[in-house]
Specification:
The protein has 219 residues and is α/β, with parallel strands linked by helices. It contains eight helices and eleven strands.
Length: 219
């Protein structure tokens, strides 16, 4: 396990979102919720782009190529432009992902076989569950290429962190810097936790220093 992954596992998505805010960076997305089991997911993105069936696309079931290309611990990240009328992921894919050691799935849309994924223990973050099949309705356009998830650009190899609060993407090129800022925020908030538990009034703990904590640092 890389040291960066270990550090990310010590943080949560709100803290990482705060770090992104402080740095003026995108990455935290909205509308994607834990749909099966709520477990923190941390890994590198293996991306999939879905779209309308078009002539000349490979006759490959959506997501299969990404699963085969992924490394254990990766997170499958599926661009489906928020569609909830048709599934972009299903039970057989969930089983194949677990067999490959995939840590979780993030889909900007709906998926099916939610009960199966829940029983298997595979964390899936998405917008909805739907029974409607992708066959004849949706095709895989690519995998391992840049995608857009809820308005945020995600490249294969970027970091994904998902927990009960939602999903955050961290660009690989600035991951060390972002994590460092998040760790500083976490440390400062732990001091506030200490003060609250010691009985200090909440109005004193969450004063001006807290409200200004995410202001961008001056160069």
């Amino acid at each position: 396990m890389s040291s960066l992954k270990r550090r990310l596992e010590e943080l949560d998505t709100p803290t990482l979102s705060d770090a992104l805010d402080k740095m003026g960076l995108p990455g935290a997305v909205f509308g994607l919720m834990p749909m099966t089991v709520t477990r923190t997911v941390v890994g590198k993105a293996m991306t999939v782009k879905l779209g309308a069936p078009l002539p000349g696309l490979p006759k490959r079931h959506l997501g299969a190529g990404a699963i085969m290309a992924a490394e254990p611990g990766d997170v499958i990240v599926v661009e489906h432009r928020g569609r909830t009328d048709v599934s972009g992921w299903g039970g057989l894919l969930s089983r194949a992902a677990l067999a490959k050691g995939i840590d979780g799935v993030v889909i900007d849309g709906a998926f099916r076989d939610i009960d199966e994924a829940r029983m298997l223990g595979l964390p899936i973050y998405g917008r909805a569950a739907v029974p409607v099949t992708a066959r004849g309705r949706v095709a895989e356009h690519s995998f391992g290429e840049a995608v857009t998830i809820a308005g945020v650009a995600v490249a294969a190899g970027d970091w994904v962190v998902a927990d009960g609060s939602g999903v955050v993407f961290i660009t690989a090129a600035r991951a060390e810097e972002i994590v460092g800022v998040a760790e500083d925020i976490f440390a400062r908030e732990q001091l506030m936790v200490r003060d609250i538990e010691a009985g200090r009034p909440i109005g004193e703990v969450l004063g001006a220093a807290y409200e200004d904590m995410l202001k961008k640092d001056r160069p």
